[in-house]
Amino acid sequence: MPKGAMPVLVGVGQVTDQWDGTTGAAGAPSPKSLCVSASEIALNDAGISASEIDTIAVVRIFEDSVPGDRHPHGHNTNLPGTIARDIGAKPERAIYAAVGGQSPQQLANEMAARIHEGEIECALVTGSEANKASKAARKHQVEINWADSDELPVEDRGMGALLLNRNEIKHGIIAPAYFYALFENAMAARAGQTRTERRHAMSALFAKFAAVAAEHPHAQFDTSSFDADFLATPSKANYPFADPFLKWHIAQDAVNQSGALVMMSEHKADALGIPTEKRIYLLGGGEASDDYISERPKMDGSWAMKVAIDRALSQAGKTANEIGAFDLYSCFPCAVFSSMAELGIDHETETRPLTVTGGLPFFGGPGNNYSMHGLVSMTEWLRAHPGEAGLVLANGGWMTKEAVGVWSSDRPDTFSPVEPYAKPSETVPIASDVSAGTIETYTVTYGRDGPMSGIIFARTPDGERFIAVAAPEALPRLLEEESPVGLAVTAETENERNTFRFT
Q1: pLDDT of residue 53
Q2: CATH number of 7-162+253-408, picked from 1.10.1040.10, 3.40.47.10, 3.40.190.10, 3.30.200.20
Q3: Segment (H or E) for 93
């Protein structure tokens, strides 16, 4: 395997399964079976056999991403090995990725670098989720069995770094929607938007994503009737979850979806006779990670997104204006608004695709693996638009881990491996003695009976940050139309938990 080889993406595949448990166990998908199906499609797309694969890399599934998960349908203790076995591959290397939605693009960046270094020659990257099947099986009391194993040695990269700290957990910031709501309301405050105005802005953006999903053959959900008014209006089908989000502003993980891609050295592609019109090149990559959300100086955007996007464009020798299509990670509207801001894009005037799938709330959000579908769909778009460039942004955590790729059918003169993860050098000091401050962002979380908890980030007069939850009498003010950002509060501490009231 020669060093300095040009890496190229030669095959892609994706599947979506609508099994819902109402017809019994027959045909029920599993994470493994979905990966096998997508991988076979990708191999067939490339026109090669599984025997050519020397490396398999698998995106981590939900059940292996949460400490202490019970694996209700049995545990597949070697997902990469069982996928390789079932497709007839005998790889020399197997990787089970760490937690994070950045994984698909990050693995593509890594496989390209390994091919360039001469370490590997042909890699299969795949991932899946079968949460819809799992939930349906339990609901309808259908027995399905996902237990399996294999002897193939695997580099298991584990859970990765913890993405939330004790201070955040103590104040109830434990769900992704709560973290992202803090970003969303900080952006709304910067724009001078009321609660209703922000919902309309989010819904105008996401109605365009829903329209793309409505035309995508692999979308999990029927979103043909999801216009901006539906998305902006609280209803039984679109209930509040964490202000300002309603249900359909949030990534939907009840999916049966899988994607796969095949990358190899260009000389191997030549030897195997893979047509040039199948080949897509990685022009540039960028990766960055950020600190705990409570320690970040920037709450109305993402430092990590900016760095990763800038690095990928720079390495590709492209500007944002030279990109023909985007797949911007869309777990929540603020993630898209943040990436658009860094790219200099305004969705109200932009005519280029901002998503090639329809996004996580509408196409489907298969956990860590969504951006695999972005890569597959972008490959299909680039093959249909020769000479154009496409940018895929993959996101993990709460705008914590970012991986970006710029892709094209045009062959670059040279290839440069992605740089090591960029990490921030600035953090906000956390106040140890809290008595008063000014709100910088907030959210209200909901339960079945309505508003449940109010949470704020605030700054002391010295510029230190503290988290606090609303006293009962303070909660109604967080639900008013006018943003509470900028208002003064007092706070008291008990058992490591701050409670605030308005001054």
Answers
A1: 98
A2: 3.40.47.10
A3: strand 93-96
What pLDDT, in 10s, does the model give residues 186-205? 999 999 999 999 999 999 99
Between CA 470 and CA 484 the distance in angstroms is: 12
195 vs 114: CA distance, rounded Å: 48
pLDDT of 70 reads 82
150-157 average pLDDT score: 98
What are residue 501's DSSP bridge partners?
490
3-state secondary structure of 8: strand
pLDDT in tens, 15-58: 999 999 999 999 999 999 999 999 999 999 999 999 999 999 99
Q: 3-class DSSP state for residue 464?
A: coil
**Structure confidence at residue 281 as a pLDDT band (50, 70, 90):** very high
Chain center to CA of 397:
8
| Sign of torsion over alpha carbons 461, 463, 464, 466 | positive
Look up residue 419 and give its DSSP letter: P
Secondary structure of the chain: what % helix, strand, coil (to 5)?
Answer: 35, 25, 45
Which is nearest to 144 in space by CA: 59, 260, 17, 39?
17
Residues with Cβ within 8 Å of residue 422, at least 6 apart in sequence: 287, 288, 289, 304, 307, 308, 311
Q: Domain boundaries in the chain?
A: 7-162+253-408, 436-502
Record the tokens describing residue 440, joined without a space: 């910088």
Q: What class does CATH assign to 436-502?
A: mainly beta
pLDDT at 75 over 80: yes
pLDDT tens digits, one per residue of 282-312 = 999 999 999 999 999 999 999 999 999 999 9
Those residues whose C-beta lies under 8 Å from the C-beta of residue 151, and which sit 6 or more positions away, are 78, 81
Tokens of 205: 């953006």
Give residue for tokens 């202490």. Answer: 68
For residue 11, give the amino acid letter. Answer: G
Rounded Cα distance between 310 and 82, Å, is 38
Q: C-alpha distances in angstroms, 373 versus 105, 248, 328, 360, 391? A: 10, 19, 12, 10, 13
Contact 108, 9 (CB under 8 A): yes
pLDDT at 162 over 90: no
Q: Which residue has the tokens 């194993």?
A: 149
Nearest residue to 471 (alpha-carbon basis) of 456, 460, 485: 456
> Residues 54-70: pLDDT tens digits?
999 999 999 999 887 78
Burial class (CB in 10 A: 0-12, 13-18, 19+), 100: buried
Peptide bond into 417 cis (omega under 30): no
pTM for this predicted structure? 0.97
